[in-house]
Structures are given as C-alpha cells and as structure tokens.
Specification:
Blueprint lengths: L2 H8 L3 E7 L15 H16 L4 H8 L1 E2 L2 E8 L8 E11 L3 E10 L2 E11 L1 E2 L8 H10 L1
Length: 143
C-alpha cells in the first residue's frame, strides 16, 4: 500500500461517538474540566481507528510502535455540564510519511463546545526511530 492508497482509506472519514458527562468529569460548578475533553477526543479517535480495522493495543504490542503526541491544540468555545450528552466527531485531517494530524470536535445539540487537533508521530518503541505509516498499515488494509 502506497501513501496515496493510505490517504484514500484515512482521509475524509469521520467517526461520531456519544459521551455522557459524568460527575467525575466536572469541577465544583458542574462544568467539564478542560483536560477531560482530551479524553473525549482520544476516545473518538480510537473508535475511528477501530472502524478502519486498526486495533491500537494489538498493533502496539505486535509491532512495538506508538503514536506519541508531538503537538496539541484545543480551542474551548462554551462549557459542557454534568449529565449532558455530547457528540464527539473525530477525523484524520492529513498524513505525512511518519505522522498524522487528527481533529476532534465536541458538540451539544449541534452547538460547538470545543475543538482540537493533534500531531502524532509513529515511532518504534524499541529504537525510538520514526516508522513510515505505509509500513504500519500495510497488512491491515492489504488483506
């Protein structure tokens, strides 16, 4: 699988998940604590990758790779509160040779509450060297 084929599989695909805001997600004013959105965004991304056939825990162990976050940006627009239902929309915005840019948004009843992007680099856990994405995903999408 080449880089173009990889882009055809990943780009333009969205995953939507529902999140119920729990009491533990909130501060004393029943407002979602800002770092909790990162958990919501990560859950959305993991779900998206599962939909595409990428099961991160299994792949991490078998291939001894990881996707550490190199850069993270979050914009907060409005607060979410305890016991609300949120929709998290996740996608992969772009692919490099060894990295990907992911995007996530949190909505309540169609209203944008927060949005974020992350840059993740594929690396070998053993050597610390960057690993080309086409090597990581070749087996997953060729069969």
């Amino acid at each position: 699988m080449g880089e173009k084929q990889l882009e055809d599989v990943f780009l333009g695909v969205e995953r939507r998940i529902q999140v119920s805001v729990s009491f533990l997600d909130c501060d004393g004013m029943n407002i979602v604590q800002f770092p909790k959105y990162l958990t919501y965004f990560e859950d959305g991304l993991v779900s998206l990758l599962h939909d595409l056939g990428y099961h991160s825990g299994q792949i991490f162990q078998e291939r001894q790779i990881a996707f550490p976050v190199r850069e993270l940006t979050v914009k907060y627009h409005k607060p979410a509160h305890f016991d609300e239902e949120l929709e998290i929309v996740s996608s992969i915005e772009s692919l490099g040779t060894t990295s990907m840019v992911t995007a996530s948004k949190a909505y309540r009843d169609g209203e944008l509450l927060a949005e974020g992007t992350s840059v993740r680099v594929c690396v070998s856990i053993v050597t610390g060297e960057k690993v080309p994405l086409v090597e990581v995903f070749h087996d997953i999408f060729s069969g």
